[in-house]
Design a protein that fits this description.
It is a single chain. With about 120 residues, the chain is an all-beta fold. It contains no helices and ten strands. It has strands spanning about 5, 10-15, 20-25, 35-40, 45-50, 55-60, 65-70, 75-80, 90-100, 115-119. It is globular. The termini are far apart.
């Protein structure tokens, strides 16, 4: 299976910034993109952002203009730079593999990293 690990969460005041990282690895050959999601307690998990191998990015409307997803210099590792944070950004942030062509590589989640934004 693919191992996915998120890091970089923490507690900040509104208006502050954090940078999250997601790193994935596998023993077998895999090709996949990595997507960011977030979830508040008692609510459904929601899409935040994604990036593909060509660097094409997508963002949820709620984070456009504030968050930036990018590839790191490490293979199968991405960042989520979060700026101008709002209390409603408080959530556990998860990373997930998306792989249309490789079923054995798709839909693996990390355990999440918690972000708390105080007003």
């Amino acid at each position: 299976q693919v191992r996915v690990v998120e890091s970089g969460g923490g507690s900040v005041q509104a208006g502050g910034s954090l940078r999250l990282a997601c790193t994935a690895s596998s023993t077998t050959y895999c090709e996949y993109d990595l997507h960011w999601y977030r979830q508040e307690p008692g609510k459904e998990r929601e899409f935040v952002s994604s990036i593909d191998s060509d660097g094409n990015t997508k963002y949820a409307d709620s984070v456009k203009g504030r968050f930036t997803v990018s590839h790191s210099n490490v293979k199968n590792s991405i960042y989520l730079q979060m700026a101008s944070l709002k209390p409603e950004d408080t959530a556990t942030y998860y990373c997930r593999t998306v792989s249309p062509a490789y079923p054995q590589c798709r839909n693996f989640w990390g355990q999440g990293t918690q972000v708390i934004v105080s007003s």
